């Protein structure tokens, strides 16, 4: 590496740091492609295809809001940025055959939200996620309500917005991956 190239790298890293950009996150962002808004199919790096289902996303919202109504909580409203975040995470888990709240790059929820946010979510006070592999949305909500930490996320009174992602895939550990993101906007 020449001295001039090294100098450019140092200046670029300093500029990224000054601008608040994380060097590894920027490299990861360039590597991973998020499903475009409105996607109903996608392709993993290994060539496998996945699908999603807007009718099942809608059924999941109905099931979540029914559980919240039973607990006297306000209904959730879907948000396109949270939907995109959820679908990206569900696709990442399905394509890479894992189930975890961190993505394959090791990012937690706040970093994952920052990577997909177009600026429409400006401030938030609570962010939570539930993951699952059940085929039926109603059955998956029942499972979440049977777990104290998942139930807390589903029924959190401050949560007002939700993003729902479902990916169906062949050749992974599970046939179906749910990622549901909850957000309580700052008031």
Helix content bin: 40-55%
Largest sheet: 6 strands, mixed
Beginning-to-end CA distance, first to last residue: 51 Å
**Count of alpha and pi helical runs:** 7
Coarse structural class: alpha+beta
What percentage of the residues does DSSP assign to strands (E)?
A: 15-25%
- Care to count the β-strands? 6
Give the topology string: H per helix, E per strand. Answer: HHEEHEHHEHHEE
Shape: globular
Show unreliable segments: 1-32
Radius of gyration: 18 Å
Mean pLDDT comes to: 83
Question: What keywords describe this structure?
Answer:
187 residues; alpha+beta; 6-stranded mixed β-sheet; 7 helices; 6 strands; 45% helix; 19% strand; globular; disordered N terminus
Notes on the structure:
The chain has 7 helices and 6 strands; from the N terminus they run ααββαβααβααββ. The chain is an alpha+beta fold and 187 residues long. Strands 1, 2, 3, 4, 5 and 6 form a 6-stranded mixed β-sheet that branches. 45% of the residues lie in helices and 19% in strands.
Offer a concise description of the structure.
The protein has helices at 3-18, 23-31, 54-70, 80-96, 109-116, 137-145, 148-155; strands at 41-43, 49-51, 77-78, 124-132, 161-169, 176-185. It is an alpha+beta fold and 187 residues long.
